[in-house]
TrEMBL record:
Gene3D superfamilies: Metal-dependent hydrolases, Urease, subunit C, domain 1. Signal peptide: none annotated. Keywords: Hydrolase. It comes from Cuspidothrix issatschenkoi CHARLIE-1. GO terms for molecular function: hydrolase activity, acting on carbon-nitrogen (but not peptide) bonds. InterPro entries: Amidohydro-rel, Metal-dep_hydrolase_composite, Metal_Hydrolase, MTA/SAH_deaminase. This is Amidohydrolase. The lineage of its organism: Bacteria, Bacillati, Cyanobacteriota, Cyanophyceae, Nostocales.
Length: 466
């Protein structure tokens, strides 16, 4: 847990300095040249040291469906997802490990897993993900994904009076499961955090939201939800509430500085102001928004309004990857085509801060994580600047964000514990993980979905596609 990184390159304002970084008992204790070596000496020469990034929104168990769902908008994509073979707990375990590995190898030391729960095995699902994340050592924020309305309720009614099947589990039963999970698994000191996480306004009643607010207040927990990912959800909010979803969530008290909101593609100016006033955080998931045709979130407007923004990969079958550096790159340069004034474009250094300190702020941990600061926890990543994809020598952060970095993480620590050494995960056997993922899957082509066939006519009608 004690080590000293010698002669490493760190970002300093708009330039770089070569210095030493000292870590004692999992905490950064000194940053200065020529420090006394405490604990293990780490050679930082020709390496860039950055705080660990946050993969601030994903669904780990979707790994089993990646590459298997054809191009569809979210509402129909979800219908296709529901058609696929239900998960078992061993798949939950393996996909949580896989998500953690890909996050770590792309610079992430924390993951927010909006975890899909196996019906009837909700607590076992959470326990399995906890076991996986503790084994690998990543800092985990497990946000059990909950809803209390059926899938068809997530599509606007239009002018048709529809009756939706009741959800299989009551609101009170769902909230009781989450409270039990909090009591059993919420151990921040051990790197495992539980969040209250209604999936979104499209599939959740106000009773579920207010129940989550009560649990958040009672146990001092962060809150996580999808918000206005698609145009259909914007239409649905108007039907349900007669106002924007953001205004409604503010009225019921869901929005505050403990709240992270994934996507936020279809927000109006008044919505943006509400997010700024409530100090809520937007998690930008550019790859899934493109993959599902959801739209481009107006991230530069959010930043200009003072909204905290960070990045997520989203689930591994709506993005089909958990490469955090890829999400950061696309999430930065995508807005060069939506913002005509190039002086407002997101710079590589700004992107790095959004991915690290922005993620920490969203989880109310900016005093503990997210920057190379004496007194903060040692969630650190050391990048190899001799790697071919980071050469020739120009601007290291520019290369990291704007380039196509491959196998560039030399070392990574979470809470001072070394998780990656010389580019290799140290805590689990990666070859065994790959073999298990291979053995429990099979080659398949994209198949037709019964759910999509049933829902598509109504979706096309209310979205004006006929």
């Amino acid at each position: 847990m004690n080590f000293t990184i010698k002669n490493t390159l760190i970002n300093f304002t708009d330039s770089y300095i070569t210095t030493d970084v000292q870590v004692v008992n999992g905490q950064i204790t000194a940053i200065a040249p020529n420090l006394e070596i405490i604990g293990t000496e780490i050679n930082g020469e020709n390496k860039l040291l950055l705080p660990g990034f946050f993969n601030a929104h994903t669904h780990s168990s979707e790994m089993w469906q990646r590459g298997a769902i054809p191009p569809l908008p979210l509402e129909l994509w979800l219908s296709h997802l529901y058609d696929l073979t239900p998960l078992d707990t061993e798949q939950v375990y393996l996909s949580a490990l896989g998500t953690a590995v890909e996050t770590l190898l792309s610079g992430g030391t924390s993951v927010v897993d909006h975890l899909v729960l196996i019906p009837g095995q909700e607590l076992e699902t959470i326990a399995t993900a906890v076991r996986a994340y503790q084994e690998i050592g990543i800092r985990a924020f497990i946000a059990p994904l909950i809803q209390d309305e059926s899938l068809s309720a997530g599509i606007p009614n239009g002018k048709i009076d529809l009756n939706h099947e009741p959800y299989f589990r009551s609101t009170s039963e769902t909230l009781a499961i989450i409270e039990t999970a909090i009591k059993q698994f919420h151990h921040p000191e051990a790197g495992i955090n539980i969040l209250v996480a209604p999936t979104g306004i499209q599939l959740c009643s106000d009773d579920l939201f207010t129940g989550c607010i009560a649990l958040s207040n009672k146990y001092n927990l962060c809150r996580h939800s999808h918000l206005l990912e698609t145009k259909a959800q914007e239409k649905l909010a108007e039907e349900k509430y007669g106002c924007s979803a953001v205004q409604h969530l503010q009225e019921i008290g869901f929005l505050n500085n403990y709240t992270t909101l994934a996507h936020c593609v279809w927000l109006k100016e008044t919505d943006i102001n509400i997010l700024a006033q409530t100090q809520s955080t937007v998690v930008h998931n550019p790859l899934s928004n493109l993959r599902l045709g959801s739209g481009i979130a107006p991230i530069i407007k959010y930043l200009q309004a003072g909204v905290n923004v960070t990045f997520g990969c989203d689930g591994a079958s709506s993005n089909d990857s958990q490469d955090l550096l890829e999400a950061i790159k696309i999430g930065s340069i995508l807005h060069n085509v939506t913002e005509p004034d190039y002086q407002n474009w997101i710079t590589p250094r700004q992107a790095i801060e959004m991915a690290s300190l922005g993620g920490a702020k969203g989880l109310n941990l900016e005093n503990e994580l997210g920057s190379l600061t004496v007194g903060k926890k040692a969630d650190l990543v050391l990048y190899d600047l001799n790697n071919l994809s980071l050469l020739p020598r120009t601007d290291p952060i520019g290369l990291l964000v704007l380039g196509r970095p491959v196998n560039v993480v030399n070392s990574a620590w979470v809470n001072g514990k070394k998780i990656i050494n010389n580019g290799q995960i140290t805590t689990i056997n990666i070859d065994e993980l790959k073999q298990e993922l291979f053995n429990r899957s099979h080659w398949e082509t994209q198949q037709e979905s019964v759910n999509v066939a049933n829902l598509a006519p109504h979706y096309r009608q209310v979205m004006g596609l006929n």
